[in-house]
What we know:
Blueprint: H1 3-7, H2 11-24, E1 28-29, H3 57-64, E2 67-75, E3 92-101, H4 110-120, E4 128-135, E5 139-140, H5 142-150, E6 158-161, H6 163-166, E7 167-169, E8 181-192, H7 204-207, E9 216-229, E10 235-248, H8 249-256, H9 266-276, H10 285-306, H11 316-334, H12 339-347, H13 352-368
Parallel strand pairs: 1-2, 4-6
Antiparallel strand pairs: 2-3, 3-10, 4-5, 4-8, 7-8, 8-9, 9-10
Helix pairs in contact: 2-8, 10-11, 11-13, 12-13
Family: Belongs to the class-II aminoacyl-tRNA synthetase family.
Pfam families: tRNA-synt_2c
Keywords: Aminoacyl-tRNA synthetase, ATP-binding, Ligase, Nucleotide-binding, Protein biosynthesis, RNA-binding, tRNA-binding
Amino acid sequence: MNPMQRNALECQAISEAFLSLHEQDGFTRLPPSSLLHDSVPMSFVMSAGLIQVENDLDKIVAETGGKFAFTQPCFRHFDMKQVGEDPTRLSLFHMSAAFHIGCSKRETVLPRLWRFLTETLGLEKDRLWVTYLDDEEFGRDEASYQCWKTLGVEEGRLVGLDQNHCFWRQRSLGQIASDGKKCGPHTEVFYERPEVSCPSCESVERAIGSCRCGRFVEISNSLFIENYIADDGSLIPADTVFAECVVGLERSAMILQGVSTVYQTSRFREWHQHIGKLLHPPLSIEQKNSLNIAFDHLSAFVKLTNDGAPAPGKGGRKYIMRRLVRDAMNQVQQCGLDTTFLLEVLLKDHHPTALERLQEECVRFNRYVQPINDNARCVNHDGK
Ligand SMILES: [Zn+2]
């Protein structure tokens, strides 16, 4: 695939490519879950995990033979404060995921993933780094290591990391681990962007998965569940093993589109174009960052509203919705823009319900809080 084709790939196209490749290998495509799922009653779906399908797992396994794939929107309210602090952090993002229940063989996951990354997406092999578990307590994930080597990944690009980086353990109990919490090693693929110069990243082993400069971007993670973990930390072999492989769509799109942050990917392009016409002189770096955070939060608000989230208010999901609006408003005001006008420009034509709720919350907010910038206004707004 040549660079021209790569540039054309947006999140939707990456998702479609991932799901089709799995369908060709006998996986059944499932629809995504609503972001409002019973498994997270006080919040929203946070990852492309098994939790959304666990209640129906027996039925799904019977229908799919245990092999299924889907693309899931995910929202992490606990990441909101970190949006804008590095080039790849979003509160709302999308993951394509493939599950194989009853099998944890690396050979059934990693070769397909490698083909997807290097052939379907066309990522350069000499930009890819792979982590695997190499830990004092849990040992070395020899199966993953050997599988990557067989695929042609050079030893120097295989980075062994401890359990803090490459070992997953379940936090709450689910159906298929009823006698303990699931756990297992995972192996991640990172894309290196050498154009980001960073002193901390001279040592790949120390930087990968730790430094947030954006030189190493995690684009994929494959997890192999083979054990439960007991309260005393000992491992108990699982009756039902499984493998999960996920790919981050916005991060992959950022790399394929050759832009330096997820905020510049096509997902936000239309909003940037709308706003770009209204702004002169150009925004400072700080103001651009504020706009990125505002766009992330507003985009999450719209998606959550469309999925049936409640209007902003007190407690649980309502409170999360309120925080999204208020944090976004603060950021918009730091850009010297009028929030009401900005919302009209971005949302009027496509998202009337989200717009109405955002405007109501802005009125409430303005009643109690002095705007950070009293001169906040839109530069080209007629009549202002
Ligand atoms: Zn760095």
